[in-house]
UniProtKB/TrEMBL annotation:
It is a multi-pass membrane protein. GO terms for molecular function: transmembrane transporter activity. The keyword Magnesium does not apply. Residues 26-268 form the Major facilitator superfamily (MFS) profile domain. It comes from Methylobacterium brachiatum. GO terms for cellular component: plasma membrane. Keywords: Membrane, Transmembrane, Transmembrane helix, Transport. Its main location: membrane. The chain crosses the membrane at residues 22-40, 60-80, 92-111, 117-140, 152-173, 185-208. This is MFS family permease. It is found in: Membrane. It comes from the Bacteria. PANTHER family: PERMEASE-RELATED, TRANSPORTER, PUTATIVE (AFU_ORTHOLOGUE AFUA_6G08340)-RELATED. The lineage of its organism: Bacteria, Pseudomonadati, Pseudomonadota, Alphaproteobacteria, Hyphomicrobiales.
Amino acid sequence: MDRVASLGLNARVAETNVYRKITWRIMPFIVVCYLCAYLDRVNVGFAKLQMMSDLGFSDAVYGFGAGIFFIGYFLFEVPSNLALHRLGARVWIARIMITWAIISALTLLVATPLQFYVARFFLGLAEAGFSPGIMLYLTYWFPAKKRGFALGFYYIAIPLAGVVGGPVSGLILEHFAGSTVMKAWQWLFLLEAAPSLLAGIAVLFLMVDKPEQASWLTEAEKAEVNAELRREDGEKIVHGSSAAFLRVRPRSQGDRARRLTRIMTAAA
């Protein structure tokens, strides 16, 4: 019995170690990516007063432009997540970040309400699928019992964006207030797009799609993670009305992508 207990303890320790390794390898970079996304989404709020004054926008024009972002975001969430599943997280997350960085930077060129609306709408299209895509990506690495911690780690970026984004945006607006090249709010869009662009390029080199492709995992660790994920997919159950357990067909990863996107869309 002692030997069996010892083996069980060793197995649990090994499992803990492999998921700790995965967490510290992929989650800090994902948090940085989310931080960049959040800054590019909300920097229009920091630019609001100067932008409205310089361009002569009314509150109604600004409000509609700020809100139209979410129309594009909503429309492209499901197609984006399906594309991620088909093309791989590394390629698709990089595409998302690079295109939203370019569009965010180009917002400095807007001069009319229509241009503002177009820029915000396409920014929403570009960023759509990022958060649902990360949710899906995490299911490739963590079983359900470990995923809660990973998601908590991921959402650290929301308060972090407020802590970092506010002071940084304020410093940019203050430092470039007297610029003769561009207005301070234009510098804000340009400079805060740069981290997203650099992070998007870094994704192509640093992100790994699935455990079996991770050179920093041993073969035994890869097998352990994949076995756990296959076991979870094969043992999904639902409660029947009679309180019995009914076995259901495992969801494919494509089904998982659609389901996660619907959940994230409803939550948004």
